[in-house]
Amino acid sequence: MKQHRINELLRHIENDCRLTKGYTGRSVFKTNVMEAIARVPREEFVPDHLKALSYQNSPLPIGEGQTISQPFIVALMTDLLCPDKSDTMLEVGAGSGYQAAVLSQLVKKLYTVEIVPSLAQNAALLLNRLGYDNVVVKQGDGSLGWPEHAPYDGIIVTAAATEIPEALKLQLKPGGRMVIPVGYPGKTQNLMLIEKDHAGNFTSRNILPVAFVPFVTDSVQARAA
Ligand code: SAH
Q: What pTM does this model have?
């Protein structure tokens, strides 16, 4: 039964991938990305009352006004990062921990920062319980990155920023890739792929119009509290 729902989800992701080829330039995602999606029990990452919807290809609320990303977007962002088993990567916006669970299977080490304390704590406990032991979660403002473990082969930002944080550009390894939604909250944002070449120069490409929850900073949080 569950296997059937996972297979259905994979078909939906493949279909969305074909439909967006004109934007993304890819008609299929890499096999290792699809396999990683297939292995993650998404029901563990969604609240109890939404478990029946776990394998729908849609974002879902996870509390604190935040969402677990749509599986197609998780697959796309993971694919764009070109993860390698020797890589160390950084995620900004752990949320439920779902994206981290998917990506962690394809890299050596994943550091992830989440600004909302309860989400950071839950994600850390859950990833640990499920055995994703190459992921480290910390609570904090991810716009500052996580300098202690830099530079990173890849950086994935799962909340929309109005501009690319300088700290993240600095913490990207030459030859590395960053995937980040850029734009204003409440509007369509652009999912961007940023590449840093070996001389330290950046190139960027718009990949797909997307809608992410906004990037927040500690000062915004303080005002909201
Ligand atoms: N990757 C998550 C998606 C979470 S939505 C998942 O798979 O479930 C984006 C997350 O980014 C939210 O949890 C939000 O609290 C967090 N976030 C927003 N601004 C942030 C910041 N400045 N630093 C770290 N996390 C941030």
A: 0.96
Question: In this structure, how many other beta carbons lie within 10 angstroms of the beta carbon of residue 109?
Answer: 16
Looking at residue 220, which CATH number applies to its domain? 3.40.50.150
Residues with CB under 6 A from ligand 1: 66-69, 92-96, 98-99, 113-116, 119, 141-143, 158-159, 213, 215-217
Place of tokens 């292995």: 39
CA of 165 to the centre of ligand 1 (A): 15
Domain count across the chain: 1
The Cα 179–Cα 156 span in angstroms is 5
pLDDT in tens, the chain (225 residues): 789 999 999 999 999 999 999 999 999 999 999 999 999 999 999 999 999 999 999 999 998 889 999 999 999 999 999 999 999 999 999 999 999 999 999 999 999 999 999 999 999 999 999 999 999 999 999 999 999 999 999 999 999 999 999 999 999 999 999 999 999 877 889 999 999 999 999 999 999 999 888 888 765 554 444
Neighbours of 79 (CB within 10 A): 20
29: domain range?
2-224
